[in-house]
Specification:
It holds the Pfam family CHU_C. This is Gliding motility-associated C-terminal domain-containing protein. The chain is mainly β. It is built from 2 helices and 63 strands. The strands form 16 sheets. Strands 1, 2, 3, 4, 5, 6, 7, 9, 12, 17 and 18 form an 11-stranded mixed β-sheet that branches. A hairpin with a 2-residue loop joins strand 1 and strand 2. The radius of gyration is 37 Å and the shape is globular.
Length: about 950
Amino acid sequence: MSLTLRSLLTFICFTVLLFSVSQVKATHFRAGEITAKRISGLTYQITLSAYFDVSPPGKTAADAATFVEFYFGTDGPKRVERGTVRNIGNNTTYNEYVTTYTFPSANPYQISVRMENRNASTLNLNNGVATDRLNFFVHSTLEINAQFGSNQTPVLLNPPIDVAAVGQRYIHNPNAFDADGDSLAYKLFTPQQSSGGGRGVNIDYKHPNLIGGPGQTENGATPATFTLDERTGDLVWDAPTMKGQYNIAFIVEEWRDGVLIGQIVRDMQILVEDARNDRPLMDPLPDLCVEAGTFINQQIKATDKNGDRLTLTSTGGVYQNGLIKPALAAFNVPQQGSQNTVTGQFTWQTSCDHIRLEPYDVLFKVEDSPAPGTPNPGLFRKLVDMTTLSIKVYGPKPTGLRAVAATDPAGTAYRLNWDAYKCLVNGARVVIYRKEGCTDIPEDVCITGIPAGSGYEEVGRVPVTQTTFLDNNGGDGLRPGVSYSYRLVVLFPRPGTTGTEPGSLVGGGESMASDEFCLKLPILMPVITNVTVDSTSETRGVITVKWIRPAAPSGLPAQYRLFRATGQSGTAFTLVSTINTNLVAGAPDTIFVDRGLNTQVNPYNYKLEYWTTQNGQLVKFDETETASSVRLEQGAAEPTRVRINWSALVPWDNANRVHRVYREDKTRPGTFNRIADVPVGPSQNFTFTDDGVDRYAADGTVNVTIVNDSTYCYKVETVGSYNNSQIRPAVLYNFSQILCVSSSDTTKPCPPVLALDPLNCDSLNAHPDAFCDSPTFTNHLSWTYPQQVDGKECDPNVSAYKVYYARYEDETPGLIATVTIPPAPLATTYDHAGLTSFAGCYYVTAVNRFGTESAPSNIVCKDNCPMYVLPNVFTPNGDSKNDIFQPYECPAFVQSLEFRVFNRWGAKVFSTNDVNINWNGKTNAGKDLAAGQYYYEVTVYFESSKKQSDPTTIKGWVQLLR
């Protein structure tokens, strides 16, 4: 090639490059994000929404880049010409770049764009220096996976261009809408620039509220704040301190069934001005939860205290055909832009097609403009406020549920029928739930489906067009004679799916649960109805226990076995009586009088086993829930009044009824006079204060004067019920022991000093299997009783100690034992046995001869040892040997955990909340991972004395071999 030709080509290339750089440098990029929409198969429409600065002097929409270059993973660059251009105010143009791309396979892909250049003098980037030399880089991640079905990114319907004012609260919300019905979450992100090849690197960045000093909020609090609500997407800066331009970025995450399946980065600019006006204010809006078919008619109102004219607008997926099915919502503002108070009317006729799990977020934005006569209107800065109306549309409640016995080879079965459903959405399913027994569940229109912890389990699914189901327990038959309860819930497919795709019924919305249908079958188990104290004594106390006879044919031999434990919640049961019966009506086989008890000091707990004849042998059928005696205690001592408290741990309901209080008539020793009927609330711990007045006149009025150092004796009769028409008697009456107390004592018992045996965690950690073979655990308590406290004598005549326990440190401890060993010296130790973990808190009190109880001892809490050991190699090769990565031995006392695995490049490849991990060497999407070294981080929450335990983080590596 000749020198002349080479020189000419060099000149041409230089000229083209110069033109390109000149064009690019003119872009002044403000904001942007990338979205993707599926067309068919693996082909998607990709859109870059770009916002350019066209501030004077001399900048126009033509200065924006006429094309951009996309990268799809490592594929690119792909040149895409500019399409739509429009001016959206605030010296900003919206520029749209649209292309289509067919992805080669189902995988996660990063879609990215680089553009030159950002604006100059952006205060929080690169220390505000030469920011126009920084390029603008954004990316989005799209998960294409057959397991997830079709997926497209959310769209951001609110443009990111609003002006903030110094000293005033600024809010932005992207108004993200996901047409797939996925759950969205938001988090802050560091703005980036391109490092080449579709990759980005972080820019030196500071949060805007850190520029110009600490500042203060609009209401005067210090410092200024900058936050992003991870649930709603509200980005709030309260409040700017320094005039200028700022860039921030955030991620909109897309979640499906607890799995992150995509994300968008929005990088945006905030323009802060010195404003002579105040921002307008929107009235707050309530969240709405409506049944499909409801017509929503919601008023939206905004005001401006400066008298500025207001413009009220709204955005949201509910207005856009293609994002939702019609009918679409409408928003009407009659006097737009003419008054300082503006009212709009939002209307939407919802339908069955609008049911989904995630709410519809409708954004309302108000913007002010100078009123006529405003001085220097050219200095006026348009300010905004916005708020979001959240609307959840749920399915109607299924109706008409009923069940009848059905003939089935499996045995006991029931045929369920219900009314035709209102919303026959293609792909929806009716889910049938069942539980033993019949109970109400709370009804809340914002909580659909079956509430967690209600005891129901799913037993079947049928198409929404079906109105019948045979429950035969999957072919195994149901338990005969059990009263089963049924409810129905309708699950709907996610928008854009038919209900047959994998996972399409996850996140698609559901109905409220149907009313319960309960099969009130004959009761096949005895039920304890009474544990009443007949006599109070240290050695000759008497308690009568009663129960009802089960519904079973008479004549066959059966047996009751009654067990007793000391303490209201005692678990050390011993057999006290075996009662043989032929279940003949009228036979005295449903009562037992338990004698020789220390009812003065101890409450007692009872349970009953029921044995039936099967093949000529007595076999245990089942056992009842436990029921304790009523325990009466003295409350805080007062000079002229006596306070008493009582409690009972029983399977029936003693709450929300009127209990009866009796006091001994001193003129007739041994005779108790009813002095008060006490209405009690929902708590199972009840109280009454006696001021000497007899408030129950039916058995005569016996008033007394409560004086110091005089003793008064009481007993209480509780009134309760099972609230079950099949259990008779319907109302259950049970007496406490007799308690004799003094209104005040000159010498009170002092609080003991408590100690709790510690755990040696270092020793136990050397033996990770230490607790594997221990079904229960025991805490050993010991205490001492002082002679003096603060120079004052303590009552030496202590007759008992009471031990209190709470599972968590912020709960009120409850009485678990009363400790005394008459006539030997008083015991000062107690073993709390039968525990599922060591965690819990204790205190002890002392009780004197009058029944006066001391203040609590020191509270002592105990925690479990955090024991969780993981291997460093596993071989998921299918040979059933070391195929699963899981903790050594048994993971003791683990409440919950978050386990994450990363490859050597730091990309997360697997996560789970399974306590045993059970990682099989695959990703969450089911793809086999290559052999190699992987790094894990596990955040473990161990059972402790705190309800919200502190996390323990364990980091390590594991070698995956195949």
